[in-house]
Amino acid sequence: MGKVVDILKKVGAITTNSHIVLTSGKHSSKYLNKDALYPHTLEVSKIGKMIAEKYKNKNVGVVIGPAMGGIILSQWTAHHLTLLKKQEILGGFSEKDGENNQVFKRGYDKLVGGKKVLVVEDFTTTGGSVSKTVRSVKACGGKVVGVCVMVNRDQAHVTAKVIGAPFQSLDVFQSDAYDEKDCPLCKQNRPINTELGHGKEYLAKKAKK
To answer: Looking at residues 18-43, what average pLDDT do you find?
Structure first.
């Protein structure tokens, strides 16, 4: 583990020994809390600069991140690329639609059409959000020159092949992630954490069944 995980530890963004419901729906004993990171703008700026340094020699015209966390990261990365390349690099984002795809609204499809695009994201567990964003960029006529995430939670399974574009991460934080039916934490009757992740929504849905 390297600099990014050190930053996350510094701002109290890492939780262990818990029972978390992740965005993907999987369960885990560990959690990376981006909401604890993003108020610390100097730290987020450092991370954006790390990504920008990796891609400063690529012909990037626009940086796109999937909502929500990717929005902030795309702005900081585009900011630092603009400074490094001494030309304006645009920043934008994709958003979920009713079918849980990542699509462009607000006219941002026009930002990526015909452009070389860097896709950024905070954490990947399954790679679902970034792969959906990559597909939307391509559908709008953009060329994805790379995908970069702050932290890859599953190095063995989240790869360039899964993402659909050249892929790298600044850091790795390997952690368990189980389907609900296979979750040992559920089998141990460990309480769901309702303060972090999607535990509150998960329990509300369970209560309706």
So the answer is: 92
Q: Which residues are annotated as a binding site for 5-phospho-alpha-D-ribose 1-diphosphate?
A: 96, 121-129
59-114: per-residue pLDDT in tens?
A: 999 999 999 889 999 999 999 999 999 999 999 999 999 888 999 999 999 999 99
Domain-located, residue 70? yes
Binding site members for orotate: 125, 153
Taking alpha carbons only, the member of 135, 118, 117 closest to residue 127 is 135
Helix (H, G, I), strand (E, B) or coil at 138: helix
In a domain, 126, yes or no: yes
CATH number of the domain encompassing residue 53: 3.40.50.2020
The boundaries of the domain holding residue 113 are 48-190
The whole-model pTM stands at 0.87
Do strands 90-96 and 102-103 pair parallel, antiparallel, or not at all (unpaired)?
Answer: antiparallel
What integer pLDDT is reported at residue 1 of this predicted model?
A: 43
List the binding residues. 96, 121-129, 153
* Angle formed by the axes of helices 41-55 and 3-10, nearest 10°: 170
